[in-house]
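Researcher: For the annotation table, I need structure tokens for GNAT family N-acetyltransferase. Please keep the output clean. Sequence:
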Amino acid sequence: MLLIPINLETPRLLLRTFKYGDINAFIAYRNDPEVAKYQSWDIPYPETAAREFIEYLQQTKPGTLGEWYQLGIALKTTDEIIGDCAFCILAEDGQQAEIGFTLSRQHQGKGYATEAVTCLLAYLFTEYKLHRVRANCDSENIASIQLLERLGMRREGHFVKSLWFKGEWVDELWFAILREEWER
């Protein structure tokens, strides 16, 4: 199956399909305890898992209902991967998606996540004509909460100790934005 790679641009970034050359940078931020703290993977994150992940993405069609797809976030100037963002169009109706994002610690606080996720939302609302996009995060993940609010996503729910995560019960915050809100 021949898949057409995604290449999205912002003023400073490329959101693109992962390549095998991204493995070292990918493993580095996945193995940072501060980056992994609120993410689904455990550390150490082995090279074999990174290779399998990239292989899977190269065989996956973006926008397949019910399947997550991740794009690398790369600096335009160097093509170095500094994080990733993901989306999953919900299989229940095909009109809604969930998103997630990760950024290496040394590139946080520079507006890259805002730039990347803004681009991802534009892509989802434009390319897939989605009705609604949602995201969730740990209630202690202040940087992600601030990012989602900065993007105009509304906090729709606070679920108290609703998720067993990395050995403890944690609170989840859910955010969402409608296409009509995004267009404004």
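Researcher: And a one-line annotation?
Model: The first strand starts at residue 7 and ends at 9.
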